[in-house]
Task: structure prediction
Amino acid sequence: MEEQRICGSALEGLSSSELCICGGIAAEFNVGGILAIIRKVIDFLDDYIPHLLKGLKDGFSF
Result:
């Protein structure tokens, strides 16, 4: 079974030789960038969840 990768706007199949070459972490792998994105998501959820829970509580009270 061939793995798939995103190529432009479509998926392109990879051969076994391409999988051997592309395996592992890429050179442009940026842990700091990923952690920054995760932090933004957590900050958003931290701001949003209290409002969501209040809305659910108010919406389901009879």
